[in-house]
Amino acid sequence: QVQLVETGGGLVQAGGSLRLSCVASGRTFSMYAMGWFRQAPGKEREFVATISWNGGDTSYADSVKGRFTISRDNAKNTGYLQMNSLKPEDTAVYYCRAQRRSNDYWGQGTQVTVSS
User: Fold this and answer.
1) What pLDDT sits at residue 26?
2) How far is residue 38's CA from residue 24's CA, in Å, rounded to a whole number?
3) 17, 53, 19: which is closest to 35 by C-alpha?
4) Distance CA 116, CA 111 (A)
5) CA–CA separation, 8 vs 66, rounded Å?
6) What span, in angstroms and rounded, lies between the C-alpha atoms of 46 and 13?
7) Contact criterion met (CB below 8 Å) for 68 and 82
8) 22-26, 59-63, 111-115: lowest mean pLDDT where?
9) What is the dihedral of CA 40, 41, 45, 47, to 10 degrees?
10) 58-60 and 103-106: which strand pairing?
Protein backbone atom coordinates (compact mmCIF):
# COMPACT_ATOMS: atom_id res chain seq x y z
CA GLN A 1 0.00 0.00 0.00
CA VAL A 2 1.01 3.59 -0.67
CA GLN A 3 -0.67 6.44 1.16
CA LEU A 4 -0.56 9.86 -0.48
CA VAL A 5 -1.26 13.20 1.19
CA GLU A 6 -1.42 16.40 -0.83
CA THR A 7 -0.79 19.81 0.69
CA GLY A 8 -0.20 23.32 -0.56
CA GLY A 9 -3.53 24.23 -2.04
CA GLY A 10 -5.25 27.51 -1.31
CA LEU A 11 -6.65 30.73 -2.70
CA VAL A 12 -4.48 32.80 -5.01
CA GLN A 13 -5.04 35.65 -7.41
CA ALA A 14 -4.68 35.18 -11.15
CA GLY A 15 -1.05 35.38 -12.15
CA GLY A 16 0.11 34.03 -8.81
CA SER A 17 1.90 30.83 -7.89
CA LEU A 18 1.41 27.81 -5.67
CA ARG A 19 3.46 24.71 -5.01
CA LEU A 20 1.65 21.50 -4.25
CA SER A 21 3.33 18.67 -2.39
CA CYS A 22 2.45 14.99 -2.32
CA VAL A 23 3.99 13.05 0.55
CA ALA A 24 4.00 9.29 0.22
CA SER A 25 4.22 6.66 2.91
CA GLY A 26 4.17 2.91 2.76
CA ARG A 27 5.95 1.00 0.05
CA THR A 28 8.89 2.45 -1.82
CA PHE A 29 7.66 5.62 -3.49
CA SER A 30 10.67 5.74 -5.77
CA MET A 31 9.41 2.67 -7.64
CA TYR A 32 6.26 4.47 -8.74
CA ALA A 33 5.50 6.89 -11.52
CA MET A 34 3.72 9.90 -10.10
CA GLY A 35 1.11 12.13 -11.58
CA TRP A 36 -1.11 15.10 -10.84
CA PHE A 37 -4.72 15.29 -11.92
CA ARG A 38 -7.45 17.82 -11.26
CA GLN A 39 -11.20 17.98 -11.16
CA ALA A 40 -13.20 21.17 -11.46
CA PRO A 41 -16.84 21.37 -10.31
CA GLY A 42 -19.14 19.65 -12.77
CA LYS A 43 -16.26 18.32 -14.85
CA GLU A 44 -14.44 15.04 -15.15
CA ARG A 45 -11.05 14.49 -13.58
CA GLU A 46 -8.32 15.39 -16.03
CA PHE A 47 -4.62 14.77 -16.44
CA VAL A 48 -2.24 17.59 -15.50
CA ALA A 49 1.29 16.18 -15.43
CA THR A 50 3.27 13.02 -14.84
CA ILE A 51 6.84 12.11 -13.94
CA SER A 52 8.67 8.80 -14.20
CA TRP A 53 9.99 6.89 -11.21
CA ASN A 54 13.45 8.45 -11.48
CA GLY A 55 12.36 11.88 -12.66
CA GLY A 56 13.86 11.39 -16.09
CA ASP A 57 10.67 11.74 -18.07
CA THR A 58 7.88 14.24 -17.65
CA SER A 59 4.79 15.13 -19.62
CA TYR A 60 2.14 17.83 -19.31
CA ALA A 61 -1.33 18.65 -20.46
CA ASP A 62 -1.29 21.32 -23.14
CA SER A 63 -3.31 23.61 -20.87
CA VAL A 64 -0.51 23.81 -18.29
CA LYS A 65 2.60 23.39 -20.43
CA GLY A 66 5.08 26.17 -19.78
CA ARG A 67 3.35 27.22 -16.55
CA PHE A 68 3.47 24.10 -14.35
CA THR A 69 6.49 22.00 -13.42
CA ILE A 70 6.34 18.51 -11.92
CA SER A 71 9.24 17.19 -9.89
CA ARG A 72 10.04 14.67 -7.19
CA ASP A 73 12.49 14.02 -4.40
CA ASN A 74 12.63 10.28 -3.80
CA ALA A 75 14.83 10.72 -0.75
CA LYS A 76 11.94 12.61 0.86
CA ASN A 77 9.19 10.42 -0.64
CA THR A 78 7.66 13.60 -1.99
CA GLY A 79 6.40 14.84 -5.31
CA TYR A 80 5.75 18.44 -6.26
CA LEU A 81 3.75 20.51 -8.68
CA GLN A 82 4.96 24.07 -9.09
CA MET A 83 2.18 26.16 -10.59
CA ASN A 84 2.97 29.60 -11.98
CA SER A 85 0.92 32.14 -13.90
CA LEU A 86 -2.24 30.66 -12.49
CA LYS A 87 -5.53 31.31 -14.25
CA PRO A 88 -9.11 31.13 -12.95
CA GLU A 89 -9.62 28.06 -15.13
CA ASP A 90 -6.97 26.25 -13.06
CA THR A 91 -9.42 26.22 -10.16
CA ALA A 92 -10.00 22.60 -9.16
CA VAL A 93 -9.27 19.92 -6.64
CA TYR A 94 -5.80 18.60 -7.40
CA TYR A 95 -5.02 14.93 -6.83
CA CYS A 96 -1.74 13.10 -6.61
CA ARG A 97 -1.44 9.62 -8.10
CA ALA A 98 1.23 6.91 -7.73
CA GLN A 99 1.17 4.09 -10.24
CA ARG A 100 3.25 1.01 -10.95
CA ARG A 101 1.97 -1.91 -13.00
CA SER A 102 -1.43 -2.81 -11.56
CA ASN A 103 -0.90 -0.78 -8.38
CA ASP A 104 -2.67 2.55 -8.50
CA TYR A 105 -3.03 4.92 -5.54
CA TRP A 106 -4.64 8.33 -5.13
CA GLY A 107 -4.50 11.04 -2.53
CA GLN A 108 -7.52 12.78 -1.06
CA GLY A 109 -6.96 15.99 -3.01
CA THR A 110 -6.23 19.62 -2.23
CA GLN A 111 -8.32 22.58 -3.35
CA VAL A 112 -6.79 25.26 -5.55
CA THR A 113 -8.86 28.37 -6.16
CA VAL A 114 -7.68 31.11 -8.50
CA SER A 115 -9.56 34.40 -8.31
CA SER A 116 -9.76 36.81 -11.23
Assistant:
1) 73
2) 18
3) 53
4) 16
5) 20
6) 22
7) yes
8) 22-26
9) -10
10) unpaired
Q: Which residues contact 11 (CB under 8 A, 6 or more apart)?
A: 113, 114, 115
Judge whether 22 and 9 are in contact, CB under 8 Å: no
Residues 6+ apart with CB under 8 A from 38: 45, 46, 48, 90, 92, 93, 94, 95, 112
Residue 27 pLDDT more than 70? no
Distance CA 37, CA 30 (A): 19
Query: Which residues contact residue 56 at a Cβ distance below 8 angstroms, ignoring those fewer than 6 apart?
Result: none
Residue 1: is its pLDDT beyond 90?
no
**Nearest in space to 99 (alpha carbons), one of 56, 38, 50, 59:** 50
The DSSP letter of residue 66 is T
